[in-house]
Write a structure and sequence with these properties.
233 residues, alpha+beta, 23% strand, 5-stranded mixed β-sheet, 10 strands
Length: 233
């Protein structure tokens, strides 16, 4: 007759440990299978993490503003494969320069890429095949050259690294002289079509706090471009 012994029967705690061990082995096998699948596809499972990390580590940066050509700048124009068409050109006071086969090119207020595209498009008519590439670079810039004339302390021509507003230009000329008619001040603008006259409210601006209200200006101060003349009668 067979008699069972209580000591030979698995205890509940021992049975739980065996179940936990089996579950752990199953989980490890599943992880091993996922890792093998990821290795079979290069970059899979890693690109998502790397991309997320790189996006977080490298936030979008605002694009730097491109230099805008002004009158008085000297440019180097290089037409690839055409040595006879390499030129150093000076942007004239009207904002233009002349170039072979392209005629008169407007440069003032444009960046070098736009100028190069304009030249290439114009000379393309002289080629049966694709026209050569054109490169334009700024060789030298004289800044913004403007003039302050009339009843000011030191009239003359001035140069600024950026376009000055009328108060900054006036301060560079030493301010108004005695008996200056600030109410009749004007700007003579140099444009491709010729000079135009722009009247300015210089008198009210010079009164300062008595005429200006706190907060943002409803109308920005006029600025001077290369070739402009601020005239104080």
């Amino acid at each position: 007759m067979f008699h069972s012994n209580e000591a030979d029967r698995p205890r509940p705690a021992r049975r739980k440990r065996r179940v936990a061990f089996a579950a752990g082995m199953i989980a490890a096998a599943a992880l091993f299978a996922q890792d093998a699948a990821a290795q079979a596809k290069p970059g899979a499972g890693v690109a998502a993490v790397t991309g997320a990390q790189s996006t977080a580590a490298m936030p979008d940066r605002p694009a730097m503003p491109r230099y805008v050509v002004k009158a008085g700048d000297q440019l180097d124009v290089f037409v690839w494969g055409e040595e006879r068409m390499q030129r150093q050109v000076l942007v004239q006071p009207d904002g233009t320069f002349a170039f072979p086969l392209a005629g008169t090119i407007r440069a003032d207020g444009r960046n070098v890429s736009d100028i190069a595209d304009d030249i290439r498009g114009r000379i393309a008519l002289n080629y049966t095949s694709a026209p050569p590439d054109v490169t334009v670079t700024v060789r030298e810039t004289d800044g913004t050259r403007f003039y302050v004339l009339g009843k000011v302390r030191t009239p003359g021509s001035f140069t600024s690294g950026s376009a000055p507003n009328i108060l900054q230009a006036l301060s560079m000329a030493g301010g108004t002289a005695e008996f200056a008619d600030t109410g009749g001040a004007v700007i003579l603008r140099q444009t491709p079509a010729g000079q135009v006259v722009e009247r300015i409210r210089l008198g009210s601006l010079l009164k300062g706090a008595r005429s200006l209200k706190a907060g943002a200006l409803s109308t920005p101060l006029p600025t001077l471009s290369s070739g402009d003349v601020l005239l104080i009668p």
